[in-house]
Amino acid sequence: MFAILNSEPRLIVVDGVEMQLRRPTVGDLAEALHVNTTAPEDANAHLLLKHLQTRNGSPVFATLEHARTCPLKLALRVVPMIEELYAEGRD
Questions:
Q1: 42-70: burial string, b at 16+ Cβ within 10 Å, e else
Q2: For residue 4, what pLDDT is reported?
Q3: Rg of the chain on CA atoms, in Å
Q4: How, if at all, do strands 52-54 and 17-21 pair?
Q5: What is the per-residue pLDDT for 89?
Q6: How distant is the alpha carbon of residue 25 from its chain centre?
Q7: Across all residues in the chain, what is the average pLDDT?
Q8: pTM of the predicted model, to two decimals?
């Protein structure tokens, strides 16, 4: 099956904590492009806000301001994983 059609969240474990990444929709892609164009300094926080979830599917961050406070160690591990989801189905 095509990866792009997979809407199930991707399960991840970071430092022993189970989380999940919500896969992007076409709307998410459009929104990410807008953020990258108008406020590139918020691009990583935006990705964390939109896609990082607890194991039960609740968002980890409630606002963009909250996502900006994400510990660097976590962001450096998770943001590339989220970016991979945007690349699914390209080939």
A1: bebbbbbbbbbbeeeeebbbeeeeebbeb
A2: 52
A3: 13
A4: antiparallel
A5: 65
A6: 11
A7: 92
A8: 0.89
